[in-house]
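Researcher: We're reviewing a set of sequences before deciding which ones to prioritize for further study. For each one, I'd like a predicted 3D structure that I can look through quickly. This is 3'-5' exoribonuclease 1-like. If possible, include the structure in token form so it fits the rest of the review sheet.
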Amino acid sequence: SVKMSNKDSELNMDNITHVDTDSEEFDCDNRRIPLEHLPMFQRLASVNGKINRMKRRQLINIMNNKKLNTDGEIDVLRKRLKNHYRMQALIKAKICESEATYFPYFVVIDIEATCTENNPADYKFEIIEFPAVLVDAKKRKIIDHFQAYVKPTINPKLSEFCIKLTGITQDQIDKADSFELCLERFTKWLEEHELGIKHRFSIVTDGPFDMARFLYGQCLMSEIPYPKFATKWINIRKVFRSFYFTKQVK
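Model: Here's the predicted structure for 3'-5' exoribonuclease 1-like, in token form for your review sheet.
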């Protein structure tokens, strides 16, 4: 069973000696968990079951004690508390080194590309704007930004649909640099902040298209190597949908 303190301010995983019958379902085979870690995940499943039955007041008391954010609806609070216990268990089991393994910096990118109202199947998207903001994850603040317009070569004239959709004018891209120069400037901007040198960071995008379609396709068309910093990224749309239990918008 799970022991609660008098003030409902703690859930102690070490006191769990068996899996409660009302715990969350746990499927070791589907999750491919090594057998030596099975007891830990079974205890986590039991803790999750207890958290699912907690009232908002109980959740907030525990989360305040652990200095966790208490904003959000009750389902959000439950998931946040479950994630906390899961991380602590992973650290204790030496599966994860520490919470410091998270990225201290995020570079949020929202690329704009050429488009038409009805893009044909073989349409080649060309980057026309490369904006980014640098976020300090610990301070939760934007500390710098990068922005550059890019001159397309295959579709040098923007469609009216593209102008209305992006807010980018023909004059802005006519005066812009090539993609090669833009990427060089962006890489230098990362280096100036010692990102990937002294500081760990991750690219963040709203969906998979910025990196997987626009940047990758542009590098192929420009015949330049795909940048190492863009081989992995965080899809914030997917993270948001998972955390807040929202459905994918079609």
